Every structure is written in structure tokens, then in C-alpha cells.
Amino acid sequence: MLTDETKRKTQVATMAQLVDVTRAAFDRVQFDALASKVEGTQTDKIESDDLVKVVTMAAKTFGLNEVEGKSVLKELASGGDLSRFGLYNAITAASQNVDDYDRATDLERIGAQVIELPSATWQQIARAA
Questions:
Q1: Shared domain check, 32 and 55
Q2: What is the spatial distance between Cα 4 and Cα 97, in angstroms, rounded to a whole number?
Q3: pTM score, two decimals?
Q4: What is the mean pLDDT of the chain?
Q5: 94 is in which domain, residue-wise?
Q6: Which one of 19, 28, 107, 127 has the lowest number of neighbouring Cβ atoms within 10 Å?
Q7: Residues 74 and 120 in one domain
């Protein structure tokens, strides 16, 4: 259905995107900013004493089903890091327990979203009561 010209333009555009992403990945300023953001998540502590409520709030926020939520809770509790970074790790670790590749990829993406949460949203999760 696509002409050779359209295919060529698509390839050119895809390569341009790849170059942009690669440059950004190796840009020291952007890398340092991301590393600083991730590092900062270790000081964003989970303040609630009820991890079940924290994970329930996170599951609701990110659209996790019951099985995924239980897996995240298990990973969070066993990981021992009760911070935003710990929740990120718990979600991405839980992705390893999902049989469906696409859903596992979604969970990896959701883990990254934990890092990017606005402070107010994080506080709602961290203080779930």
C-alpha cells in the first residue's frame, strides 16, 4: 500500500528519532538531571504504617489489577525500601511475574511513572490511611 517514497521518508524520520534519543541519552546534563531525580526519590519516604493501603492507592492511581497489586505489595515488603524508589522497584520487580509481555512492559512503564509523579500525588500515596 505504501509507495517506495513514503517508506523512504518513514525510514529517514525513524533514523532522525533514533539519533535524537541517542544524543539525549549521552548528554551529560540530561543524564545528571535524571540521575538526580532518581536519587531524590530515595528520600521520598512512605509515611503510612499501612503498606496495603499504600499499594491499594498506587494500584488505583496506575490501574493495577488485584493480582498485580498483591505482587507489588510482596515486592515492596520484601525489598525493605519504603520510599518512592522502593515503590518504583517493587512495581518493576512485579512486572517479572506477569506472563503477558505487553502488560509486563506496561508495569515497567508504570514504575517509571512513579519517579515522575507530582509531589502532591506522591504524598497521597505515601500517606494513604
A1: no
A2: 43
A3: 0.76
A4: 92
A5: 51-126
A6: 28
A7: yes
